[in-house]
Amino acid sequence: MILAAETFGPLETAGPALVWLVVVTFVFVECAIILGLFLPGDSMLLTAGVVLAAHHSGAAQVWALAVGAMVAAIAGNQVGYVIGHRRGHHLIARRNGRYLNAANLRKVNVLLDRYGFWAVLIARWIPWVRTLSPLVAGAARMNHTRYTIASTIGAILWAPVLLLVGFYFGEYLERVSWLLPTVLAVMAAVLVVGTVLGVRQYRIEMARPAVDVEIADVDPD
């Protein structure tokens, strides 16, 4: 991530393009595959918004990226659903896994069975559930139309909102000359460290013995 356009002159023109790449990739991965369990998606969106504010990108560009993030989230949800559906009623957990364990998969399965549409909608705001929900929904044979509507609404209320909050928060910080670079440096450091630790935790988790978890069909109503 770029700490400030003035600090990294050579990256000044590449900054917005890099932000686009990071945001779209992070959002898609977090919503589609298991690696997303360990990525700091919420803080990434907030940081990206602040970065765009520091670059004086303008509202038009940040709104365009908000739409791009929303599309990436919707696409990631569909990929996750298809992966779960193709695996049938069985998903692979990890023995003693921190997030990818049998207990968490069953919790998501119970949430979908009890609350269906609303569970998918609310899951968007719970990091580990956000990644597991599409996989479990597919494996549990949740009605695809209902799932798509709920996950799309959730995507609209998640990715663009956090990105725009970060952007307008960054514009507010610009009123104090030293405050924006300082806050941005801290946020970028947290994001980088969180990503590195997350990838490391993913490697540790996937090295643990696999556990086959049977997922029950959810109530179609």
TrEMBL record:
Q: Report the coiled-coil segments.
A: none
Q: Does Cell membrane count among this protein's keywords? A: yes
Which residues belong to the signal peptide in this entry? none
Mostly located where? membrane
Using the record's annotation, list all stretches that form the VTT domain.
39-166
Cross-referenced Pfam families? VTT_dom
- One cellular-component annotation, GO: plasma membrane
**Has the keyword Lipid biosynthesis been applied to this entry?**
no
Span-the-membrane segments of this chain are 17-39, 60-83, 149-170, 176-199
Q: How does it sit in the membrane?
A: Multi-pass membrane protein
Cellular localization per UniProt: Cell membrane
Q: Which UniProt keywords apply?
A: Cell membrane, Membrane, Transmembrane, Transmembrane helix
What family does this belong to? Belongs to the DedA family.
The record's annotation in PANTHER family points to: INNER MEMBRANE PROTEIN DEDA-RELATED (PTHR30353), TRANSMEMBRANE PROTEIN (PTHR30353:SF0)
Q: What is this protein called?
A: DedA family protein
Record lineage:
Bacteria, Bacillati, Actinomycetota, Actinomycetes, Mycobacteriales
